[in-house]
Amino acid sequence: MSKITGAHMIIKCLKQEGVGVIFGYPGGKVIPLYDALYDSDIFHILVRHEQAAAHAADAYARATGKTGVCIATSGPGGTNLVTGIANAYMDSVPIVAFTGQVSTVEIGTDAFQEADITGITAPITKHNYLVKDIKDLPSIIKEAFYIASTGRPGPVLIDVPVDISTGLIDEKAEGEIDLPGYKPTYKGNQKQIKQAAKKIYESKKPVIFSGGGVISSGASEILTSFAEKAKIPVITSLLGMGSFPEHSPLALNMAGMHGTRYANTAFTQSDLIIAVGARFDDRVTGKVSGFAPEAEVIHIDIDPAEIGKIIKTAIPVVGNAKDVLTDLNKRYFEMDNAKSIDRKKEWVAHLMELKEKFPLMYDKKSPNLKPAYIVEKIYEHTEGKAIICTEVGQNQMWAAQFYKFTQPRTFISSGGLGTMGFGLPAAIGAKAGRPDKTVIDIAGDGSIQMVSQELATAVSNRLPIKIMLLNNGYLGMVRQWQELFFKKRYSHTCIRECVDFVKLAEAYGGVGLRVTDKKDVDSAIKEALETDNVVLVDFWIESEENVYPMVAPGAPISEMLEWEY
Amino acid sequence: MNHIISVLVENKAGVLAKISGLFSRRGFNIDSLAVGTTEDKSISRITIVVQADQRGIEQVVKQLYKLINVLKIQELDPANIVERELVLIKVATDSKNRAEILEIVNIFRANIVDVAKKSLLIEITGTSTKVDALRELLDPYGILELTRTGKIASTRGSKKKI
Ligand SMILES: Cc1ncc(C[n+]2csc(CCOP(=O)(O)OP(=O)(O)O)c2C)c(N)n1
Ligand SMILES: [Mg+2]
After folding, report:
1. What are phi and psi of A404, to 5 degrees?
2. A452 within ligand 1 shell (Cβ under 6 A)
3. Residue B92 in contact with residue B116, Cβ under 8 Å?
4. Architecture in CATH of A3-170
5. Ligand 1 centroid to A447 CA: how many Å?
6. For residue A87, how far is the Cα from the chain centroid?
7. Helix, strand, or coil (residue A372)
8. Domain A190-357 shares a fold with domain A371-540
9. Is residue A429 within 8 Å of A60, Cβ to Cβ?
């Protein structure tokens, strides 16, 4: 019986799981793992901070549908992963994180670089493991990938003490999944689905609310064909963007705090919400008691805990969005679709009118450099086919509002956690997973400074991502709140002119371009897209531009601050 | 309102921490928690008394189910269970009141498990109401120490419900 080290076993298991790319950073307690990696053909991307490894793995998963993998050493390596793991948890993204740990005999002694990472990450992982016996290693890895990618996806962490990775195990040892308490429901209850179909059929003012679960379960196609055939308008959550093509007349785009007027009105006036893979985040609902006062809710979700958590549900359907929608689709069209469309005709016409009357707006005639204009131009130049990652803040909302998403897995943004500094490492992860795609980070000047060291990762790994920096010299979203709700007292939100971002890009071996005039937008975007290198375009946008519409925090979504039309 | 939930879990390291962590993270208060292995040593039963409204208890149960090592959960109907708690009460005594205390102990069918010069250690098993009643009666003598196991419960009848 020939034996291999635990580290080699980890690599072997990763290969069995089909892992091609890993994001990570070495350190004392993972040297054995990195040593095993040295002989392997798995592509390892060395980040410059572990947080970026977790974000990159997260975006890799969102872009490809595969499970992302990251590695960090014990102690500070693991704690640096925490933000990235929390981000993946909030947005239900499958990643498996490996951390090194002090040896099993040292655990609990405050040994050098010891941190209780399974304790720390328990509330932000779907599950985690501390490997205590090398014999368990293959099974733990197999279970970790299974748990991360099935049911409601999420991050799983495996903490590997160094004596486990240096210990020996039978080369042929195979893992097996033994999870008696874990049985995610995929197929929806047929009786409920039938009831749901009937309810939709009878409704006069229905609206579909499509969330991130539609994308992760691969249900975009069936959702789109259902909505188009039944002629039911579709609102997307931030993470649901791309699940329904935004050029469709039925697309009402995003609802919520910075949602469209027509989407928020649709929720408010609807008699039936068909929520699919969405969790009614407070950024969507606004004041819950004022949310959709007339609507009954059909809630389709793979996680039973989401149903009824925020909003009262008339018909719950627990199951995978794709399976449930497929069944629902079948049931629904057993009924007379023409009659149903007729019943909803007035409603749809009303919404189309609102859409026409209250489009997303910005001052198009202004000679100033407007962020919305830049995003529209990025859309034009990429023909809507790029993968768009975002940072957090105004940049994120402008990207969501003004780029037209038509394909799933093309909008990658930190929704639940709202993590500044997500976009750049996310672009790296997405590009690593989809080298065939143009990958763009629509960035803010504040956010990118949380992770700007990752320019080195992108350049040195030849991942020619494009950073479109909407540089307003402010922590803009916070400034906007200060302007609107704190009497313009801009406490610690002005960050203007400290950094020369062009030089920064150049310092890392990338290309930096600066645009201060509207007329140069086209040429700069074109040059960025045509350059085979990491390019950062520093757009000096109008500094006090606000994101509208806006629902004030705590207000119902029917009350919107907005453009004077 | 108080709810008793009985949770069967895989008897693995870290499971209890994950369960108690979930309660604090989701903002629920645990009144008592008792853990022990079941007839199957690889499975433990955790009996938890939690305060929550109906919506809250539904969330607790659903969130608990999401923990990978949780096998089964049952909210116990107080009308249909036998619930017990074991409590040790150390009460101050002197030669004058010792007889009085012994009488109370007898009435409650509790046991004296240790006798010292200035104290008695009393063991009582029963429902929380019974335990509380005894405690109230002993209070005037001076309770020096009180230790409770937390509530455990089993459903009535021969059917294995959980
Ligand atoms: C890690 C982190 N810290 C703080 C915040 C709070 N926050 C939300 S938006 C924002 C401003 C972001 O500034 P910038 O990246 O320049 O984007 P802008 O809004 O100007 O487009 C801040 C500080 C956050 N979301 N994440
Ligand atoms: Mg900014």
Report:
1. -95, 110
2. no
3. no
4. 3-Layer(aba) Sandwich (3.40)
5. 6
6. 8
7. helix
8. yes
9. yes
**CATH number for the domain whose boundaries are A371-540:** 3.40.50.970
Rounded-to-integer distance, Cα A66 and Cα B25, Å: 29
| Paired tokens of B99 | 């007889």
What single-letter amino acid sits at A401? Q
- How far apart (Å, rounded) are the C-alpha atoms in residues B19 and B64? 7
List the CATH code of the domain at A190-357.
Answer: 3.40.50.1220
Q: Is the dihedral of CA A446, A447, A448, A454 positive or negative?
A: positive
Choose among A118, A181, A305: nearest Cβ to B69: A181
Give the single-character DSSP code of A67.
Answer: P
Q: Does residue A560 sit in helix, strand or coil?
A: coil
Give distance in angstroms: CA of A47 to centre of ligand 2: 24
Residue written as token pair 């670089």: A113
Helices (DSSP H) in B1-80: which residue ranges?
15-25, 54-66
In this predicted model, what pLDDT tens digit does every residue of A268-281 receive, in sequence order?
Answer: 999 999 999 999 99
Predicted local distance difference test score (pLDDT) of residue B160: 66
3-state secondary structure of A4: strand
Domains in chain B with CATH codes: 2-76 (3.30.70.260), 82-153 (3.30.70.1150)
List pLDDT tens digits, range A49-99: 999 999 999 999 999 999 999 999 999 999 999 999 999 999 999 999 999
Please tell me the number of Cα atoms within 13 Å of B80 on its side-chain side.
Answer: 9
Would you state the structure tokens that stand for residue A277, as one six-digit string?
């893979």
Q: Predicted ipTM?
A: 0.89
Structure-token pair, residue A187 = 């197929």
Rounded Cα gap, residues B75 and B61, in angstroms: 8
In order of A396, A434, B16, B113, the CA distances from A527 in angstroms are 23, 21, 57, 87
Domain ranges of chain A: 3-170, 190-357, 371-540
Check if A306 has its Cβ closer than 6 Å to any atom of ligand 1.
no
